[in-house]
Amino acid sequence: MTLRETVEADSDPYRLKNVDAGQYQTNSTKSLYGAVPVIYGHSKKSTSGIFLHNAAQQWVDITYKEKLKPSARFIVEGGTLDLFLFFGPSFKDVVRQYVDLTGRMHMPQLWTLGYHQCRYSYLTQDDVKEVVTKMEEYDFPMDAIWLDIDYTDGKKYFTWNPQNYSDPVGLQKYLASMNKRLITIIDPHIKVDSDYPVYVGGQGKYFVKWENGSDFQGDCWPGLSSYIDFLSPEARAYFANWYRYDKFNGSTETLAGIWNDMNEPSVFNVPQWENTFPPELVHYGNVRHRDIHNMYGFLQTKATHEGLLARDKHLKRPFILTRSYFAGSQRYAAMWTGDNTGDWPYLQVTYSECVLSNLVGHVFCGADVGGFFWDPEPELLQRWYQAGVWLPFYRGHANADTKRREPYLFPDDVQTVVRNALKTRYKHLLVFYTLFYQHVTNGDPVVRPLFYEYPDMIDIDDHILIGTDILATPVMEKGAKTKTVHFPGNEDTFWYRADLCTGNWTVHRGGTNETFNVDIQNSPYFYRAGSIVVVTNKQRTSTEGLLDDHFTIYANADPKGYATGFLYSDDGVSFDYQDKDYFCLLEMKYYTHPVYGFHYEQVKGNMELNFSFKEIVVHEIPESGNIAPISIEVVPGK
């Protein structure tokens, strides 16, 4: 995660220009799908930050020539120089200062934290039904299935293919009966077609233009296309209006999210412009495209967010996934790392990519499990599912020319590993949900590098913290038989190795390195001593009904015999948590002095306590031997 030297190393500077970067090179200074012009300077003693709020193309040179004074030089193509400095002094302070400036996302709907199944493309509605049915039959939990561009009529968005998706309402009724949601792709390019209402209504008014005032037309999936000018408030409103149920005919409430792709924006067959807009195009207000290029995707998600809010009468939290992003995009959309490749180096950078996104406010981040391009070998696919458990957005996705890779298509041994990974995710869903609440409240990331909590652990990229209480250390090396874990903290810090399947637990001291044997079934993760982690018991096939289930409390005592934790709940869908304080935040405490006990009480919110705890499993640091669980009585708060 440390920026590399570009000056003395004779390297190109880091380039910030949003482009369609399919099969991008890992650990490169080249452009990617999104750009957030922020740099943090971090040491064991203090942290500071720089944010250049400029959406034009940028280059950033890094030098460490003078070891005590590393420097960064920004080169900007155009736009304004709007510079913000953050003085910390801690890393947490700097991140919170940046997020306070650029904004935080609202709470996600609970189901969006489950597993998502996607492919380019599911070509028929019968194919979609079969995938959902098979996932249920083979006991793979899933909350949403995604439709890429082939669900449309000739790549015309807000339409359905009349042959292959002839009954979209019936399809959505079926999905609803299975407690699944549908996500459809909506790109910013609009097919030039005199019989296409979206194009006809925007022609000459709402599209990006040449300097002479004519609509720009470029090649993309539908063929010749015009592109919405999202800088224009009127154009955003026009685009947003098409999400209405009566405009997007065939859509229902089961179509619960939108995927904004190709929004760098991508234009085919124009290498002279790097397959995007020419810089001299003109937007609303006579703004040249070169000055705002990197915020085009941001503006599309803003329009989509406005459209979904209006569609659902502000009763539901919109869910949007975007490929292109800029500073502040987190207010409107989740993001993913784009069209990666089914090869080990892409798995190995996944944690760095999403942790860095979390540090600039984009906390709802994930990567295509298995890689979008290529056919991953079974070992890689299994390891990717295990690693993906611990990222906020969890989706399997693949390109059209890859072999089908829905989990039920693999041999039984592979299915078992993937199934266990998915169930581990669903067990910990309320952990993630609580962390999203904490982000909304104070700006802290959902997933974090070790140095966020332990400033001296700077160079470890394959471990992440989920909040403060879970350390994830998945296996990311081909053929690995062992995994070396670097335990953060000092001699007073301890970590319990969690094995919810076997019930076998071990304890490990902070500040040490330990090597574990790892067969394909094993993907180590640990609970911090002093934490309380709440997991679900009932293994459902989606999040539906999850809040009504019984939960197990893992009280992981520290050396003094104490543990604390929080648990958050709301209705999982609406904005009542912020408009009416309709939520429940529990504080939980385990203690051994003066007597053994467990206490919980509601400390915030006016939603009636709705948790049902089945059992409490207590782990205490032993003087020797194995950890023995302790059963204690639950004492509700007054």
Automatic annotation (TrEMBL):
Q: Can you give the residue ranges of the Glycoside hydrolase family 31 N-terminal domain?
A: 5-61
The yes or no answer to whether the keyword Glycoprotein is present is yes
A GO cellular component entry from the record? endoplasmic reticulum
Give the GO terms filed under biological process for this record. Answer: carbohydrate metabolic process; N-glycan processing
Pathway, according to UniProt? Glycan metabolism; N-glycan metabolism
- Cite the Glycoside hydrolase family 31 TIM barrel domain residue spans from the record: 106-435
Q: Name one Pfam family in it.
A: Gal_mutarotas_2
Per UniProt, subcellular location reads as: Endoplasmic reticulum
Q: Which PROSITE patterns match?
A: GLYCOSYL_HYDROL_F31_1
Q: Which UniProt keywords apply?
A: Endoplasmic reticulum, Glycoprotein, Glycosidase, Hydrolase, Signal
Q: Which GO terms describe its molecular function?
A: alpha-glucosidase activity; carbohydrate binding
Predominant place of localization: endoplasmic reticulum
InterPro entries in the record, alphabetically?
Answer: Gal_mutarotase_sf_dom, GH, Glyco_hydro_31_AS, Glyco_hydro_31_C, Glyco_hydro_31_N_dom, Glyco_hydro_31_TIM, Glyco_hydro_b
Show where the Glycosyl hydrolase family 31 C-terminal domain sits: 443-533
Residue ranges the record marks as coiled coil:
none
Q: Which family does it belong to?
A: Belongs to the glycosyl hydrolase 31 family.
Which PANTHER family does the protein's record reference?
ALPHA-GLUCOSIDASE (PTHR22762), BCDNA.GH04962 (PTHR22762:SF54)
Q: What is this protein called?
A: Glucosidase II subunit alpha
